[in-house]
Design goal:
The chain is α+β, with helices and mostly antiparallel strands. It is 55% helix and 7% strand. The protein has three domains: 4-96, no CATH class; 103-135, no CATH class; 141-271, no CATH class. It has helices at 4-7, 20-26, 37-44, 111-121, 133-140, 142-176, 178-186, 191-224, 236-262, 266-271; strands at residues 12-15, 32-36, 53-54, 67-73, 89-90.
Length: 273
Amino acid sequence: TPRYFETISLPLLLGRNFAPDDAGRYQREPNVAIINEAMAHYYFGNANPVGRRFGWGDDPQKVRYGIQIIGVAKDVNYGKLRESPPRLIYFPATGGSVLQIRTAADPTTMVGTIRREIQAVDKTLRADSVDAITQLVDQALVREKLVAKLSSFFGALALLLAAVGLYGLMAYAVLRRTQEIGIRVALGATRSDLVWMVLRETLTLVSVGIAIGVPAALSLAPIVSSMLFGIMPRDPVIISVAVLVMSVVATLAGYLPARRASLVDPLSALRCE
């Protein structure tokens, strides 16, 4: 219908929308249509398809090219969100078994109102199924959401284990260098010097891990790309956030041993074996 594209917030990139009399003509024979970007690029390349005519049939000699393209709509996926947008043709129509309704309120709260309004128009009509677009998208992304939750859980677990391991490693390093720390304090090293000494080693280990991990993640990105929707496997923002989170966690894990080193009594440290 003329307001279909407006209802689903699908913009027209070229040409015009359907007019009311277009729908009336379609009931006899289609003579106007709107195509999407994929259709336009496939058949017309970079040329403007508005005003061109097409038809279909088994015999090219008998095809009537009587359908005029009046507009080009932006690509959109219907149902299969993980695949590239298909080539689509929109024809005008006045009737149908599906109503597209747009509301600023929560769609799930409008089900009763929609049913009552339909009954008020015609009591013989019945809305068998009322689904919100968000619900349909959620159903289409069940597998992706499950994988995302599992990946988040195991990612958080791996981050926790890395932090615990890094803390244990630096705590052991501080313990082995107790005498060295005592000598440094005796020679005038301040607490901030000792903290920075331990943190520097921690950040060095993290930097080496990041230098190895980021290229490895980028090289393995195509493997997981089929399980992603709405984000790119090599998104620089996501990679930057991951590096930042790892750096912060590593700094916190290394700070506790560093603070313990800064509180070492020099006399006790020198007697330590």
